[in-house]
Structures are given as structure tokens and as C-alpha cells.
Design brief:
- The protein is an all-alpha fold.
- 81% of the residues lie in helices and 0% in strands.
């Protein structure tokens, strides 16, 4: 066995755990997206007042529902809520 053969064989065996981790990570991402979608659909069952308490509107839910399955609608809702709260804070500072 030459050094090149040994090096190639070692590289292939070292890549196996990396490929397995990619599969596990991909599966975990799918499970997380599924759980977040379930939580997102529970938000749709809330009243407008309850949504306002957490800084969202029903329209925000309609924006986030159009995202592809792989993307996280709860992350999008978080960014919408954050942007809205920053905007309200800036408006309050202008008034004061």
C-alpha cells in the first residue's frame, strides 16, 4: 500500500461521520420546522387581542404562512414583531 492509497482510504473513512451528521442535522431541521409550523398554526387560533398582546396582527400570520416549508414562520414572525417594536419605540422618542 502506497502512501497515496493510505491517505485516500483514510479520507473516505473520515468523511463517513461527516455525512452521517449532515443527515442527522437535516432530519433535525425538518423536525424543528414541523414543530414550529404546529406552533404557528396554534397562533391562528388566538384572538386578535391575544395576538396584539404578543405584538402580532392577523395580517402578520398571513405574511408568514406563505413561506416555504423548510423556512421557519416563527422566525419570520419574530423579525416582524421586532421591527414593529423598534418602530414604535422610535415614534415614542420623537413625541417625547
Amino acid at each position: 500500500m502506497t502512501t497515496l492509497d493510505h491517505c485516500t482510504e483514510t479520507a473516505h473513512s473520515a468523511a463517513r461521520p461527516v455525512n452521517a451528521m449532515r443527515i442527522v442535522t437535516h432530519f433535525a431541521d425538518i423536525v424543528r420546522a414541523w414543530k414550529n409550523r404546529r406552533a404557528f398554526y396554534r397562533l391562528g387560533e388566538m384572538t386578535d387581542t391575544e395576538l396584539a398582546d404578543i405584538g402580532l396582527t392577523r395580517g402578520d400570520l398571513h405574511v408568514a404562512v406563505d413561506l416555504p416549508f423548510a423556512s421557519d414562520p416563527t422566525a419570520r414572525l419574530g423579525s416582524i414583531r421586532q421591527a414593529r417594536s423598534e418602530n414604535v419605540e422610535q415614534l415614542a422618542r420623537r413625541v417625547a
